[in-house]
Design brief:
Length: 246
Amino acid sequence: MDNHEQTVFISYAWGDEREEIVNKIDESLQTRGIKITRDKRDLGYKGSIKEFMEHIGQGNCVIVVVSDKYLRSPNCMFELVEIADNKQFHDRIFPIVLADADIYDPVKRIGYVKHWEEKRAELAEAMKTLDPANLQGIRDDMDLYDRIRDKISGLASTLKDMNTLTPEMHQDSNFSHLFEAIDKRMKETPAAAPKKDAESARKAASADNISASNGGTAVGSINIGGNVDGNIVIGNNNQANNTKKK
């Protein structure tokens, strides 16, 4: 598991009540020793937004603050779809559902599907006005709209089936239920040992290197070979030569 996969991310739509509760989550969990990685603080100037969102999608623990704006945001939904595509969706997400997120009424959930169908249709119509050669990058947006439209109903249904508690319950407990769930998940899936870098791997391989030259043979790190003069060379840390007499 890479480092970013063990990081605790938070996925949310910026602004208003959403920002307020995210700040409270951030502060509460960090005082308990869990560092939250969030875009506004950790992405950095000129950092790749798409790459950061992909890392969220691969995260082992992702707090998802679901709101109406979240479910209508291309960037937020990209993160949610990426999480789902990386499997174990139910285990890896820790949702907090705000009051304006209409995921509990099936008719309202259909409204989100229609929203993305309309966004796709609007983009498709606009694309017709351009030469296909000038659509670089736009096709990626179309593909994203397709992914969101196809998955949003199922993802919203999964979220509504989870006992996410109310935002008020989380705040009243100072997010203790959220902390305990994340802490348990992190202990169950500890970070993997770091991989050896290329230079370390090369040195390790060369330590047990077996080589033979000029038709010779090799055993372990002992080399038995010959040279063009017919000499036999047996070498390890020390070498012994048997020189053919003329």
